[in-house]
Amino acid sequence: MHPQRRTALVSVLAAAALVVLKLATGIASGSLGLLSEALHSGTDLVAALLTFFAVGVAVRPADRGHQYGHGKAEHLAALSEASILVLASLAIAGAAVARLLGILEPEVDAAWWAFVVLGLVIAIDATRTIVSMRSARRFHSAALQANALHFGGDLAGSTAVLVGLVAVAHGYPNGDSLAALFVAALVLLAALRLIRRNVDVLMDVAPADVEEAVTAAIAGIEPPVHLRRMRMRQAAGRTFADVVIGVAPGAAVGQGHAVADQVEDAVQRAVPESDVVVHVEPDEDEAAIRDRAHAAALSVRRVREVHNVSVVHVVDHTEVSLHLKLPGDLPLDEAHRVAEEVERAIRRSVPEIDSVQTHIEPLAEESRGHVAEENEPEREDVERIVLATTGEPARDVRFLHTDEGLVAHLTLAVDPTATLAQAHARASEVEHAIRTACGRIADVIVHTEP
Q1: Do 132 and 13 meet the contact criterion of CB atoms below 8 Å apart?
Q2: Which CATH entry fits the domain spanning 369-449: 3.40.50.1370, 3.30.360.10, 3.40.1180.10, 3.30.70.1350?
Q3: Using one digit for the tens of pLDDT, what is the confidence trace for 303-346?
Q4: φ, ψ for residue 29, nearest 5 deg
Q5: DSSP annotation of 221
Q6: What CATH number has the domain spanning 286-363?
Q7: Which parts of 23-75 are beta strand (E)?
């Protein structure tokens, strides 16, 4: 027999013996405390039987129909056990209150043999609490832990009943009812804790402390691993983890497998005996994600232009932001609907993106214009500003008269070894200087070339 089932069987035999002992003594003495403890032990007997059969199911290996094993049988048994305890505690509390209010007359005989029985009961409760707690820790068993909590509650309840009988023996007849009420409250609190803990497991609530430990363990891997997604659940003291990681698109199969092994080892060090599944996906670079998001946005009707597309990786998720240009005469609510459609299109085309932020701008309508004369009065000012700002004369300067005003087009020569960012900064500097000095110029278009 498996050690877990052996422990559960001992609990069954002990609970059966205690029911008989407490019930007989309670009837003979008239002690509500002992009768309530007999009822409590009766629920423990049912619970112990449930645990005995549940553990027998839970230790079975995984099969085709139960690919994650049978561990949740323990939690179902513990939940049933807790429900029985709630009903029993309410019944005990009702009887105790009835005696305290005088509805029922307390008739308790605090005979010496009742104290002997309670001493024996307390010794049994203490022994089986210790045995069950040690087994629960050894096997990480939820059902055995539930048993241990019940036995601990029995120990406290039996002690309270002993105190109540001592009070009865010294002329305080309500002592037995108060002890019974204490037992009921004790059992109810333990049952509610059990219900909450086992419902969380059955509902696959992610264990926060375990999740933090696993995330820290993966973050400590060198070289760093891109953790895309992680899902965790527990059953019968065992943790199941599904981890998705990203690796370089050019990595060989063997390299991806080696990284997956590192992640699996890290998780199992953080959570011993856990079941870990690691899925490896190609980790696209930022430029590829940006291009796919840009193309998806342009596929939406009425979108005329997309720019300033940026990709940001934040811990375990990816965000994209972009600027949309829509017709300027479009009503705001319709423009908002277009933006939402763009966000949905991007999420469909780039599923690894978790959130999309859009900024809507009006599209400038076409305007008419004509080329200005060569002797445009602003030409000399523009050429002077370019020379003072860059140290080199402009390669080309021309002006257009448009509906919005005078527009200056100029070409700058930039060092061929300069970066694009440096060339853009130089163009912006020239543009700002011209706008500041020449108030009649409505716009400045600067082209840079090596």
Answers
A1: no
A2: 3.30.70.1350
A3: 888 888 888 876 667 788 888 888 877 888 888 888 889 998 98
A4: -95, -20
A5: -
A6: 3.30.70.1350
A7: none
Lowest mean pLDDT among 114-123, 259-268, 406-415: 114-123
Domain ranges of the chain: 3-202, 208-282, 286-363, 369-449
* Fold match, 286-363 / 369-449: yes
User: In angstroms, rounded to a whole number, what is the distance separating the alpha carbons of residues 296 and 292?
Assistant: 6
Answer positive or negative: Cα dihedral of 379, 382, 384, 387: negative
Q: 371 pLDDT exceeds 60?
A: no
Dihedral of alpha carbons 198, 200, 206, 207, sign: negative
C-alpha to C-alpha distance for 335 and 302, rounded to whole angstroms: 9
Alpha helices in 59-105 (DSSP H): 72-100
- Residue 34: CB atoms within 10 A of its CB come to 31
Q: What is the distance between the alpha carbons of residues 428 and 419, in angstroms, rounded to a whole number?
A: 14
**Are the C-beta atoms of 226 and 283 separated by less than 8 Å?**
yes
Residue linked to tokens 């007999």: 38
Strands 275-282 and 238-247: parallel
Q: Give me 350's structure tokens.
A: 């780039």
Rounded to an integer, what distance in angstroms lies between the CA atom of residue 110 and that of residue 166?
7
Confirm if 246 and 281 have CB atoms less than 8 A apart.
Answer: yes
pTM: 0.43
Confidence of residue 176 (pLDDT cuts 50, 70, 90): confident
Burial of 177 (0-12, 13-18, 19+ CB in 10 A): buried
Q: Which of 278, 287, 290 is nearest to 227 (CA)?
A: 278
The residue written with tokens 């080199």 in the block is 392
Q: How distant, in Å, are the alpha carbons of 2, 67, 194, 242 from that of 64? A: 23, 6, 30, 19
Per-residue pLDDT tens for 261-289? Answer: 888 888 888 887 778 888 887 766 666 78
Instruction: Assign domain 3-202 to a CATH class.
Output: mainly alpha
Within 70-174, residue ranges assigned H as helices are 72-100, 112-139, 142-169
Question: Token match 């970066």: residue?
Answer: 419
Paired residues of 235 in beta bridges: 238
Average pLDDT, the chain: 76
Q: Quick one: pLDDT at residue 411?
A: 87
- Partners of 371 in beta bridges: 400
* Closest by Cα among 157, 162, 155 to 132: 155
CATH topology of domain 208-282: Alpha-Beta Plaits (3.30.70)
